């Protein structure tokens, strides 16, 4: 009879006899009995004495195992000499284990608490105030272009109503729906978070729209950034911002345990930031490029990436910007830099917009000229309803009106960062961080451009500037942020 290892009773007995003897053939028990230290009871358990009795490795005798193990040793020798594809793949998989994403289950709205009411209140105030000020800023321009002084206000109001409904719906839906795998059998739940999910589909869809803009997009003010589908014109870069935030949050949580590796901890993120920024630069959309790059870098830093890798991205971005200005001499950027450094040097031509913005802000004084009483909106200040709506706010409401808008955005940022810090998982925390950072950076950059603190980048003021696609995207992002707040103690 033999056991599962193919050894008979006699072979096992020979192994036992060999194991209890050392090289001189004496039994260990007899050898230890002759040691004088062991006879002393005080030193009976001395480990140094027992360590001197070396034991032989437990292996079956060659004469008794060669014949039985001949059929087992032969294939092992062949596989060692010539490893096949399975052996090579197995060794590679040991060095590079498959990353398993944590499964984040979808929780119904009935089992969740209420959303953050202070954030909701601030957003409502910003939305209402933004529609009123945009209506006032676009009064003269809409009258000449559309024949109706409130044409742009009506379009913005419709977008605000639709966006508000989307915000409420997304606040009632668990934000984990973006990372739940899409491919699994009917009635069968996924075992982990791996697989195609909404975050990936959203990002690839946004990239496809960005590529389509390059070829069939609409050109407005010498910039091709819009596309018209089924009679609706929108800006795909707004979707790309939100898609990058959601996808990066998912990847950072999935690869957190492998953050020290080159590809999983840096390569994938570098691929996202390069592809997104390249598509924006192809449209000459400098503001979107800067915004996406800063958001991804900050999310990588907070998500646990190595500081050296984050710094390397910053250095590469700075070198690339310098090359665009010096080597490639991109006129689009050099003209903006010149207008920033010398705002009144060519006030009748290249620096006209910047100089008029400064005049508009200074005309308001402390308390402003009154709501609707702006003079600069009558074709003195270009894009008064869009990129330079903050200048009209300062002219009509004065210094205190401008500070009120800034204070509202500060309150929004505070509530957003509180939600990000108290989120129940890393994915929710990073998504809240990205959304809060995006809206805050847009507000800072727009106000800085209006005050000539930075070069003109063509970025809009959230909730205030005219733009239906931007307003819809921002309200949808706020809905996701409110959904995250339902699982926090805020």
Rg computed from alpha carbons, rounded to a whole number of angstroms? 34 Å
Spatial separation of the terminal alpha carbons: 71 Å
What is the strand arrangement across the widest sheet? 1-2-3
Give average pLDDT, whole number: 79
The major pleated sheet works out as: 3 strands, antiparallel
Q: What order do the SSEs take from the amino end to the carboxyl end, as H and E?
A: HHHHHHHHHHHEEEHHHHHHHHH
Based on Cα principal axes, name the global outline.
elongated
What structural class results from the helix and strand content? mainly alpha
Q: What share of the residues lie within helices? A: 55-70%
Low-confidence stretches: 35-44, 47-82
Q: Please, how many helices?
A: 20
Number of strands: 3
Strand content: under 5%
Task: Outline the structure in words.
This protein is an all-alpha fold and 490 residues long. The chain is built from 20 helices and 3 strands. A hairpin with a 2-residue loop joins strand 1 (218-220) and strand 2 (223-229). It is elongated. Mean pLDDT is 79; it is low at 35-44 and 47-82.
Core attributes:
20 helices, 3 strands, single chain, elongated, 490 residues, mainly alpha
